[in-house]
Amino acid sequence: MSTITDTTVIGHWIDGAPRASQSGRTAPVFNPATGAVSAEVALADESEIDAAIASAQRGFETWSRFSVAKRQTVLFAFRELLNARKGELAAIITAEHGKVLSDAMGEILRGQEVVELATGFPHLIKGAFSENASTGIDVYSIKQPLGVVGVISPFNFPAMVPMWFFPIAIAAGNAVVLKPSEKDPSAALWLAQLWKEAGLPDGVFTVLQGDKLAVDGLLTDPRVQSVSFVGSTPIAQYIYETASKHGKRVQALGGAKNHMLVLPDADLDLVADQAINAGYGAAGERCMAISVVLAVEPVADELIAKISERIAKLRIGNGAGVDGVEPDMGPLITAQHREKVAGYVDIAEQDGATIVVDGRDFRVEGHEDGFFFGPTLIDKVPTTSRAYQEEIFGPVLEVVRVQSFQEGVDLINSGQFGNGTAIFTNDGGAARRFQNEIQVGMIGINVPIPVPVAYHSFGGWKQSLFGEAKAYGVHGFDFFTREKAVTSRWLDPAAHGGINLGFPQND
Ligand code: NAD
User: Fold this and answer.
1) Is residue 262 classed as helix, strand or coil in its secondary structure?
2) What atom of ligand 1 comes closest to residue 182's alpha carbon?
3) Where in the numbering of this chain does the Aldehyde dehydrogenase domain appear (predicted)?
4) Which residue in 49, 89, 282, 287 is the catalytic one?
5) DSSP H or E stretch at residue 378
6) Is the pLDDT of residue 491 over 90?
7) Looking at residue 318, what DSSP letter applies?
8) 447 catalytically annotated
């Protein structure tokens, strides 16, 4: 497998094989821990976009005719290969994304859950049958694949997010064109190779490397039937509007600003541990990261002290580990993103917040050019500040002090995002009220990152999801299939009823 990533220009995967790009356009791929450019990634031109979609169309013609049993055999083979070789994929993710190896493995395992769900697809796409719905008439519904489907993914989960979609899309008989993030493009190629080894016909899984040009190609090409997008909110909105205008089915998951509401009765040691895990894991580059701790007074001072103590013990370094020892947290994705995160801490400070732990000047010895940013804790962040209202996507925890449960709920509900949230309490009644009143798609009760299991569905509310369909679970199977209802009568010559021009009635 190493041949794919050894090339200096990371190319596409078209027609079941690596395809070098002729576009002449590339973007750098970094090792975020060292700051060095590890490769260039191809950025597709129009002819490569056309070749990818045309190949997928051919792949669909073949694959959609495969029996359910044959499709299932390929899915099981893919699952077995992934399970056996996932360590290779984790190393690729860490090298390009920067997250620590165990975290890279964690995202693969959560993606693998969806592969496992998809192996049971016959049950989920089998339709329904109503015998003798009207006298002598049977009605049944069948679920058919859409055709070529586009998946556009963000940098922060280069394996898991594509796996939220493609196992179900492929199981249902579609052909997928995946446009990975240009910041970490190699995981997608590894997955493509794995599909090949699992016996998937050529063209059913295609990787198109690129930028806005490739995305716009998928959004506008009439051969592409649907678009599944995950990324930042402004782009999610653009994707939703553009693809919808071109007649496609769209699901577009956007950004987040997730709050953890801490009631005074909560166990503050548990809360501090969970705030650290959910705030600083993957350097805060998770759409389900906790960004805001809403402390219902009088707990804020004690909680801040506990979180600060724990920050001091965190080990930050190269996600690949040094001499077999893995740190807790790796770097951010790019130098530019590090500047953006630092900019938000500057804004909070200018707006009157108190910087309790400052990660802006943090450097890792021996990795001075890496894109590291230290865990940062900010108290008394004004809710009028852009640093509170916007997504930072870095290892920054903001504390906002509130006086009551209701003040906390109102604040969460007033935000533009509605991806995830959590409440920490031992009061079941308060947790139940929170669950009912909060305007957010995914809720944790004493669980800080409530990413639903594969057989439930993933998706937020408000500016965190454009379109009706969430990712995976039953939503996933509905999204990647189109239903037909068939009304059928086998005429009995003895009793067919003769001529009747009235509108058909059921009897
Ligand atoms: P991004 O929006 O910059 O990029 C996502 C994808 O869109 C990439 O493939 C990129 O190439 C493409 N893209 C970027 N700019 C574009 C443009 N102008 N036109 C067309 N396509 C464009 O997001 P990112 O920085 O890669 O990822 C981080 C963001 O993703 C965060 O906002 C995070 O919250 C969000 N995210 C959300 C979820 C979720 O489930 N809601 C999950 C993971 C990440």
Assistant:
1) strand
2) 11
3) 21-486
4) 287
5) strand 376-379
6) no
7) -
8) no
Output the pLDDT for position 496.
66
CA of 231 to the centre of ligand 1 (A): 3
Least Cα distance to 331 among 27, 31, 5 occurs for: 31
Do 97 and 155 form a contact (C-beta atoms < 8 A)? yes
Look up residue 87 and give its amino acid. G
230 in contact with ligand 1, CB cutoff 6 A: yes
Q: Which residues of 115-248 form beta strands (DSSP E)?
A: 128-134, 137-145, 148-152, 175-179, 205-207, 224-230
Looking at the chain, the number of H-run helices and the number of E-run strands are 16, 23
212 lines ligand 1 (CB under 6 A): yes
Give the Å distance between the CA of 464 and the centre of ligand 1. Answer: 12
- The tokens describing 71, both together, are 């499709």
179 within ligand 1 shell (Cβ under 6 A): yes
Q: At which residue do the structure tokens 């806005």 appear?
A: 212
% pLDDT > 90, the chain: 93
Which atom of ligand 1 lies at the shortest distance from residue 216's CA?
A: 20
Adjacent-strand bridge partners of 444 = 422
At residue 147, does pLDDT exceed 60?
A: yes
| Minimum-distance ligand 1 atom for the alpha carbon of 419 | 41
- Which distant-in-sequence residues (6+ apart) come within 8 Å of 232 by Cβ? 154, 254, 255, 391
Residue 6 has pLDDT above 70, yes or no: no
| pLDDT at 349 (0 to 100) | 98
Residue ranges and CATH numbers for the domains of the chain are 9-254+464-485 (3.40.605.10), 258-445 (3.40.309.10)
Q: Does the pLDDT of residue 3 top 50, yes or no?
A: no
**Mean pLDDT computed over 230-234:** 98
Task: Determine contact, residues 13/41, Cβ cutoff 8 Å.
Answer: no
pTM over the 0.85 mark: yes
